[in-house]
Design goal:
This protein is of the alpha+beta class. Helices cover 16% and strands 42% of the residues. InterPro entries: Bac_surfAg_D15 (IPR000184), BamA/TamA_POTRA (IPR010827), D15-like (IPR039910), OM_assembly_BamA (IPR023707), POTRA (IPR034746).
C-alpha cells in the first residue's frame, strides 16, 4: 500500500485535528464505477475528516481488489484520491488439456475469480497452479505440469495463458495386500477396478492409477470381507509409492481381517401391519449362516417392497447387529412402516411429443388408489417397453400438509421414434440399395405405428405400408393393417433362378394376456406369380409343372409373444420370445403351414448396461398338407449372411439344387427346416460416448437349413437334420444408428466351412432401414 501526501503525514502527527473539505475527487478510475468508489470511501464534500477516516477509506478501497496503488492529497481544499487500478483479464486461454474438458476447467477458474472481465490478481495464480496439479494427481497424472504466462494488453488489460502438460498416467506395477490370512491376494483383487500392468489391452485402463479408483477398490475389499462375515475387518492403511520418474505406482494395503461371525439369532421388532409370515419370507438367512452384509441389504429391500405392496410406501427398516463374544451375532430387523399412502395425482413431464394418454394407459398405478411398490415399478417397466424414451423415472413426492398422500411424477426423456428418409446405400448381400421410407413408431404422439417403405436392390423391389394401433380398444386389443407388393428376380443371385411377384393385404388383432405376453390372430390374402428363368432347377420346375405358376392364397396366422426388451433399437436388458403358426388354408390354391420360434435375451455383465451378453436363436419348420406335397420352394428358409450365420454368403447354406445338365453350377435350394443361433459379448469402445446409438460385439454364430424331401436325382441333397452340418463362425460386429441410416459392419471367420460353401470375411450394410 502506497500513500503519498504531506497533508496526510501532518494529519497523522495531529490526529486530534479535524478538517472540512469543500469537495472530494477520485482520479484514475477505469474499471470501477465512480458511484461505487464513492460508496466505498464513505464521505463527500463539506464533510469533516481526520487521518483515521482517510486511512479507513484507503483500506476500504484496497479491500475491493481493484487497486494496486492509492495516493491521497489535498489541493485547494479538495481531497483527491489518485488511484491506479489493477488490469482486468482481457483474454483467458487454456492449452494442452485433453483429459479434463475446457468447460470444466473454466468453471473451476471462475469460482477462483479467474475469468474474462474480472480483475487480475497475481496472488491467486499460484493457488490455481497447485489446484490444477492436484486434480491431475488425483487422476494418476503425476508427471503433469501447469505453467501460466501473463501478457500485457491495451487499455489496462491482461492476457492469461494456462499451459498444461498432462503427462502420462502412472501405471500400477504392483498391488500388495498385507495382513490377509484367510483369502489369497488373487481372490481379494478379482473385482478391483485397479489392476497391475500386464498383457496389452487397448480397451482397458485398469492399470492406470487414479485416487478415486483406489478408494472404490478399498470399499470393494471391505464389502468382500463383510459379505463373508468379517465384521471386525479394517483397512489399517493404504500406501501409494511412486518411482523416481513418476511413471510407476506401487500400492500396499494393510488390513486386519479379524474373525468371521455367524448368525446366532434373527428377530423382528417394531410395528408389523402385515402378517409376520410375509415378512419372514423375505428373510433368506437363518441361524448358523455366515453373516453377509449384501444379504442383509437384500432382506431390507425385500421387507420394504413387501410392505410397499400394501401401501406402506415409506417403510423404514433398520438392522441392529449385536456382536457376541463367541463370534456370533444377533440381528434384529426393526420395522417402522408409517401410514398407508395413496396417490393423489399423477403428472407427466418431458413428453413434448408423446400425448399424456399414451403414458397414462401404461400405468398400473392409478390416481386415488393405494400407492404400491410393485405397481409403480410395473408402470415404469411398461413405459420403458414402449421404446419411445431414452430414460424413464418415476418419483413419489409427499403432498404438503398430509402424511398419507403422494404425487407421482413420471419424468421421461424422449428419443427419436421414427424417420423420414431417402437413402442410397450398399449391401454386400443385396448390392446397391435405393430406398425411401417413412417410419414412425409414435405417429403424431399417439403411440400408433405408421410405416411406408419403397426399396429397390439388384434382385428385389419391395413396397409396403402398414398401420398398427396398440390400443384399438381400451383393454389393449391391437389392430394392424398392411399392404405389400414385392417383386424378386434371383437370376443373378446365389439362390434359385426365378422371378416372383407377390401382392397382398393383411389384417391382424392382438390380445394382451399379461403385461408382456400377447396373442395375435391374423389373415393375409396374397397373390403370387412365379416365372422361371432360363435354367430352372429340377426342383423348381417340378413344383411349377405340378401346381402351376399363379397362386391365390388365404393365410391364417396365430402368434404368441412374450417381450420385455428395454432400450429401443439397441436393447440393453430383457428378453423376447415369439412362437408363430402360419397356415395357407384350403380356400386358396396352396396348402402349407410354417411353424416358427424365435427367442433372445440380454444379460448384464458386472451390473453394467454397456457390457452385455446376448443370446438369440431361431427355429423354423414348414411343410405342405392336403393337395400340396411340400412347402412351396419360394417359402423355403435360407441361412447365411448378415442376418443369420455371418461369414457365409447370404442365403448360400443348406441343400443344393440339381440340374439335368451336369455342367450347370448348383446354388442354394433352401429348406423347410431352419436352425440358427448367435451368442454375443457386447462391449463399449473407450472412444465412443453415445452408446445408445453405437454397439460393438464379439459373436459366435451357428446354423443351417435342412429339408425333409429331396428330388430323386439330387445327389447333393440329404434328407433330415444332420447336426454335423451346422456351420459356425466367429467375428466382430459394429453397428451405428446414424441420423441418416443404420450402418453395420461384420468381420467374420467361418470355423468349419466345407467344399462348396461360399464365404465372406467382410459384410456390411448401409441405408437398409426397412
Amino acid at each position: 500500500m502506497k500513500v503519498v501526501s504531506a497533508v496526510l503525514l501532518a494529519l497523522i502527527s495531529a490526529q486530534s485535528v479535524a478538517k472540512t473539505v469543500e469537495d472530494v475527487r477520485i482520479d484514475g478510475l477505469v474499471q470501477m464505477p465512480s458511484a461505487r468508489a464513492f460508496d466505498v470511501i464513505g464521505f463527500s464534500e463539506s464533510e469533516s475528516y481526520d487521518s483515521g477516516k482517510v486511512y479507513q477509506a484507503i483500506t476500504s478501497l484496497f479491500s475491493t481488489g481493484y487497486f494496486s496503488d492509492i495516493n491521497v492529497y489535498e489541493e485547494n481544499n479538495v481531497l483527491i484520491f489518485d488511484v491506479e487500478e489493477r488490469p482486468s483479464i482481457g483474454n483467458l486461454t487454456i492449452e494442452g488439456n485433453d483429459l479434463i474438458q475446457t468447460e470444466d476447467l473454466e468453471r473451476g477458474l471462475k469460482l477462483s475469480g479467474l475469468e474474462i472481465g474480472e480483475i487480475y490478481k497475481p496472488e491467486t495464480l499460484n493457488q490455481i497452479v497447485q489446484e490444477l496439479q492436484r486434480q491431475y494427481y488425483a487422476l494418476g497424472r503425476y508427471s503433469a505440469k501447469v505453467s501460466i504466462a501473463v501478457e500485457e494488453m491495451p487499455r489496462n488489460r491482461t492476457g492469461i495463458v494456462i499451459n498444461i502438460d498432462e503427462g502420462d498416467t502412472a501405471k500400477i506395477v504392483h498391488i500388495n495386500i498385507v495382513g490377509n490370512k484367510e483369502f489369497d491376494e488373487e481372490l481379494l483383487t478379482k473385482d478391483f477396478e485397479s489392476a497391475e500392468t500386464g498383457s496389452w489391452n487397448p480397451f482397458s485402463s485398469a492399470d492406470e492409477y487414479a485416487k478415486a479408483k483406489l478408494e472404490g477398490d478399498l470399499n470393494t475389499l471391505k464389502s468382500f470381507y463383510l459379505d463373508n462375515g468379517y465384521l471386525d475387518f479394517n483397512v489399517v492403511s493404504s500406501q501409494v509409492s511412486l518411482s523416481s520418474d513418476k511413471r510407476d505406482v506401487y500400492i500396499v494395503i494393510n488390513v486386519d481381517e479379524g474373525k468371521p461371525y455367524s448368525l446366532n439369532e434373527i428377530s423382528l421388532s417394531g410395528s408389523l401391519p402385515i402378517s409376520e409370515d410375509r415378512v419372514w419370507k423375505q428373510v433368506t438367512q437363518k441361524t448358523g449362516d455366515v453373516f453377509s452384509r449384501s444379504e442383509v441389504t437384500k432382506i431390507i429391500e425385500g421387507i420394504s417392497t413387501e410392505l410397499g405392496d400394501d401401501g406402506y410406501l415409506f417403510t423404514n427398516v433398520n438392522v441392529i447387529p449385536e456382536k457376541r463374544e463367541d463370534h456370533t451375532v444377533n440381528l434384529s430387523y426393526q420395522i417402522t412402516p408409517g401410514p398407508k399412502v395413496y396417490v393423489r395425482r399423477i403428472t407427466f413431464s418431458g413428453n413434448s411429443e408423446t400425448q399424456d394418454e399414451v403414458l397414462r394407459r401404461e400405468m398400473t398405478q392409478f390416481e386415488g388408489a393405494l400407492a404400491t411398490h410393485s405397481k409403480i415399478q410395473s408402470s415404469k417397466r411398461r413405459i420403458e417397453r414402449l421404446g419411445f424414451f431414452g430414460s424413464v423415472d418415476l418419483r413419489t413426492r409427499p403432498v404438503a400438509g398430509t402424511s398419507d398422500q403422494v404425487d407421482l411424477d413420471v419424468v421421461v426423456q424422449e428419443q427419436a421414434s421414427g424417420s423420414i428418409q431417402a437413402s442410397i446405400g450398399y449391401s454386400e448381400e443385396d448390392g446397391t440399395v435405393l430406398g425411401f421410407g417413412i417410419s414412425k413408431r409414435n405417429f403424431l404422439g399417439t403411440g400408433n405405428k405408421l410405416s411406408f417403405s419403397a426399396t429397390r436392390t439388384s434382385s428385389k423391389q419391395d413396397y409396403a405400408i402398414s398401420y398398427d394401433n396398440p390400443y384399438f380398444t381400451v383393454d389393449g386389443v391391437s389392430r394392424g393393417v398392411s399392404l405389400f407388393y414385392e417383386k424378386s428376380d434371383y437370376a443373378d443371385d446365389d439362390v434359385e433362378d426365378y422371378q416372383l411377384d407377390e401382392i397382398g393385404v393383411g389384417l391382424n388383432y392382438g390380445y394382451p394376456i399379461s403385461d408382456t405376453q400377447r396373442l395375435t390372430f391374423g389373415v393375409t390374402v396374397k397373390e403370387s406369380v412365379v416365372q422361371l428363368g432360363y435354367t430352372p432347377s429340377n426342383e423348381t420346375e417340378y413344383y411349377i409343372d405340378t401346381y402351376g405358376e399363379n397362386y391365390d392364397d388365404v393365410i391364417a396366422s396365430l402368434a404368441w409373444s412374450d417381450s420385455d426388451l428395454i432400450g429401443g433399437v439397441l436393447p440393453t436388458d430383457g428378453y423376447s420370445t415369439k412362437a408363430s403358426l402360419e397356415v395357407a388354408t384350403p380356400v386358396g390354391d396352396q396348402q402349407y403351414y410354417k411353424l416358427g420360434l424365435t427367442s433372445q435375451k440380454y444379460w448384464s455383465l458386472g451390473g453394467s448396461n454397456l457390457w452385455l451378453f446376448h443370446a438369440k436363436g431361431r427355429l423354423g419348420y414348414g411343410n405342405g398338407y392336403g393337395d400340396t406335397e411340400a412347402l412351396p420352394f419360394f417359402e423355403n428358409y435360407y441361412a447365411g449372411g448378415s442376418y443369420s450365420v455371418r461369414g457365409y454368403s447370404a442365403s448360400s447354406l443348406g441343400p443344393k439344387n440339381s440340374y439335368d445338365d451336369p455342367d450347370e453350377d448348383t446354388s442354394a435350394l433352401g429348406g423347410n427346416i431352419l436352425m440358427t443361433g448367435t451368442a454375443e459379448i457386447i462391449f463399449p469402445l473407450p472412444m465412443v460416448e453415445d452408446h445408445k446409438s453405437v454397439r460393438t460385439a464379439l459373436f459366435l454364430d451357428g446354423g443351417n437349413v435342412f429339408t425333409d424331401v429331396c428330388y430323386v436325382d439330387n445327389s447333393e441333397c440329404n434328407e433330415g437334420v444332420d447336426l454335423s452340418e451346422i456351420r459356425y463362425s466367429v467375428g466382430l460386429s459394429w453397428t451405428w444408428i446414424t441420423p441418416i441410416a443404420p450402418l453395420s459392419f461384420n468381420f467374420a471367420r467361418p470355423l468349419n466351412s466345407k467344399d462348396g460353401d461360399s464365404t465372406d470375411f467382410f459384410q456390411f450394410q448401409l441405408g437398409t432401414t426397412f
